[in-house]
Design goal:
Rossmann fold; seven-stranded mixed sheet; 7 helices
Length: 211
């Protein structure tokens, strides 16, 4: 999908107080930034930020970091963040392939993947956020009892994920092909995409990966 360029997005992101501009300097020190020892949850590919901002508002005792590589999308999340009176949410503009360079081993408690780019061509499989290559990265930064929670409307990507994740020596639980008609829907927070897909009657797939 082609993203529309937002004039001034990069300039505004570069000076925003809620964006961590040199995240590699925070590696192993994220709790110093938040000034507490609360758990750290991250969302990779957070889009316009509706999901992670709702989590931050609902869970003040958890620290949240939203990762997004597109400036034209991140700027929309920043605009919403500027209106919130919270201290437990920061953003990073980066490609998730570099994630092990900004988090220390076992520094993250939970990872959210929501409606990730499916990278439909086979030669791009390793770029999918649920590929075994990415789960190798998650294995490094995530605490041993941490989990990865993945939601998508894309059945092909979900089927790939169900087969691929065990290849990385992770296990699956709470797997559903229709989240909103399942026992796992309680407490679910919808993203912008999810709201649209549910309104269209599309089923949402969800799983939890753990070690």
């Amino acid at each position: 999908m082609r993203l529309r360029n937002v004039k001034g997005a990069r300039e505004n992101i570069a000076v925003n107080q809620f964006v961590v501009h040199n995240p590699e300097e925070c590696k192993g020190k994220w709790r110093e930034l938040f000034q507490n020892d609360n758990p750290i949850h991250i969302e990779i590919g957070m889009g316009k930020g509706k999901f992670i901002q709702a989590l931050a508002q609902n869970n003040p005792n958890i620290n949240y970091i939203g990762i997004e590589k597109y400036s034209s999308v991140l700027i929309r999340a920043i605009e919403k963040r500027n209106e919130l009176d919270i201290t437990n949410l920061y953003f990073i503009r980066m490609d998730a392939e570099d994630i092990i360079n900004i988090f220390e081993e076992g520094e993250v408690d939970q990872i959210y993947l929501n409606f990730s780019d499916p990278w439909p061509k086979d030669r791009h499989a390793k770029r999918r956020l649920t590929s075994k290559e990415f789960f190798g990265r998650y294995n490094t930064i995530l605490k041993k009892d941490g989990v990865v929670i993945f939601k998508t409307d894309n059945r092909e990507l979900f089927d790939f994920s169900v087969e691929e994740i065990p290849l990385a020596k992770w296990m699956l639980k709470d797997v559903t092909y229709d989240l909103h008609n399942s026992e796992f829907v309680e407490g679910n927070i919808m993203t912008e995409y999810e709201e649209r897909f549910v309104a269209e009657g599309k089923p949402i797939n969800r799983l939890v990966a753990y070690r």
